[in-house]
Specification:
13 strands; M23ase beta-sheet core domain-containing protein; 225 residues; Cell_wall_metabolism_enzyme; globular; M23ase_b-sheet_dom; Glucose Permease (Domain IIA)
């Protein structure tokens, strides 16, 4: 049977938007937010405002409109949150793709699907409002997750509602509703939801990494940013 990663890679032939508007592939710049980025040492990472300025300056210096990155990235910035930084969890490896664009940007579905579940994961440092879509293509079922949305994005949603590729499904939230982050979309693909509803880990610990990477391949295979 074809691997899930190969299946995703063949679903789209080129750049596939997940942010609405006039974004093109050349508008995106890769950003490294791993522990290897020494510029982060100068930043007060606990401050969502300081991080927003950091992202804005990064884009301005490169004449780009959006930043992306973060898959399988070891990050120290999660140390600010007890949700990740505690003796039981110790989670610091990011397994989704972050796309850094302004608050209230439109979020669109890259594929046909339906609403699987949604939830406001309102812990400090969590996803905040989250939507998960279910997709069935060529008899293969999988899921996409959209985190750090606005609260109004969850209004009037119905589980099972049909979604077409390119449909607006949400708007990005600002720091006061998105888990206290600079505005960005956390986009993740899961082959198996493992019975979770409205939530799925996007940051994991090293001991569990192999399992999560197998279930959650690189979203760039689909989006081709």
């Amino acid at each position: 049977m074809q691997s899930f990663s190969d299946f995703l890679n063949e679903l789209t032939s080129g750049f596939t938007p997940v942010i609405g508007g006039e974004y093109k592939q050349e508008d995106f710049a890769y950003i490294d937010l791993s522990e290897n980025n020494r510029d982060l040492l100068k930043l007060e990472v606990a401050s969502s405002e300081a991080f927003s300025i950091f992202i804005s300056e990064f884009l301005k210096n490169r004449d780009k409109k959006a930043a992306y990155g973060g898959y399988n990235e070891l990050r120290t910035l999660y140390n600010r949150s007890q949700l990740f930084n505690n003796t039981e969890a110790n989670r610091n490896i990011h397994i989704g793709l972050d796309v850094w664009v302004p608050a209230f940007s439109d979020i669109v579905s890259p594929l046909d699907g339906k609403i699987h579940s949604f939830k406001d994961n309102d812990n400090f440092g969590d996803y905040g409002p989250t939507i998960i879509l279910e997709h069935v293509i060529d008899q293969r079922k999988f899921y996409t997750l959209y985190g750090h949305l606005s609260r109004k994005s969850l209004d009037n949603l119905q589980v099972g509602a049909e979604i077409k590729a390119g449909d607006k499904i949400a708007e990005l939230g600002d720091f006061d509703e998105n888990g206290d982050y600079a505005p960005h979309l956390h986009f993740q693909i899961m082959e198996n939801m493992q019975d979770k509803i409205g939530d799925y880990p996007g940051v994991v610990k090293k001991e569990d990494l192999d399992m999560f990477l197998k279930n959650c391949p690189d979203p760039s295979l689909l989006l081709k940013i």
